[in-house]
Specification:
Order of helices and strands: EEEEEEEEEEEEEEE
Radius of gyration: 15 Å
Helix content: under 10%
Strand content: over 45%
Structural class: mainly beta
Number of helices: 0
CATH topology: Metal Binding Protein, Guanine Nucleotide Exchange Factor, Chain A
Largest sheet: 7 strands, antiparallel
Length: 157
């Protein structure tokens, strides 16, 4: 059964966290890093969904803490993670909220991945493409319609 098309302009602000029943998977350097049917997706106006995978469904042994900490006005301070598999390293390929702000507690003990910093991200049977730009980590699948924030010229949206 095909999933209904969604416009990112129908998503809420502040963002909403909801369960995702489709399989969410992330592969890097030929290794399955995350694989879950218990992911969460975060929906925010003008952004494609961001998927958060429970730590129990992530190969956390491949993650190494990275230096930068960023801040989301809604979710709080985000820790970033490198994926390290032998000589294959993807810098700041994942992030997590160790102490998410009120309303986003479900994101604790979950990891999100930038689709442009890994080999492949899938939702169900669909391969995701990255949200434009290098700051946001949304996953674009065929059922998601834009325009999307992140490309040059969209900074003030």
């Amino acid at each position: 059964m095909a999933r209904r098309s969604e416009s990112v302009w129908d998503y809420p602000r502040p963002p909403r966290v909801e369960p995702e029943s489709r399989r969410v998977a992330v592969t890097f350097a030929g290794v399955l890093i995350a694989d879950s049917r218990n992911a969460l997706r975060v929906l925010e106006t003008s952004h494609p969904p961001t998927f958060y995978v429970p730590a129990r469904d992530v190969n956390t042994g491949a993650l190494q803490a990275a230096a930068p900490v960023t801040y989301c006005e809604w979710k709080g301070a985000a820790s970033h993670w490198d994926i390290c598999l032998g000589t294959s390293i993807s810098h700041c390929a994942a992030w997590s909220y160790e102490q998410p702000r009120r309303g986003y507690e479900l994101l604790r003990d979950h990891f999100a991945f930038y689709p442009d910093r890994v080999d492949r991200c899938t939702v169900g049977d669909e391969q995701a493409t990255p949200q434009p730009g290098d700051f946001y980590g949304g996953w674009i699948t065929p059922d998601i319609r834009g325009p999307f924030k992140g490309a040059p010229g969209t900074e003030t949206w």
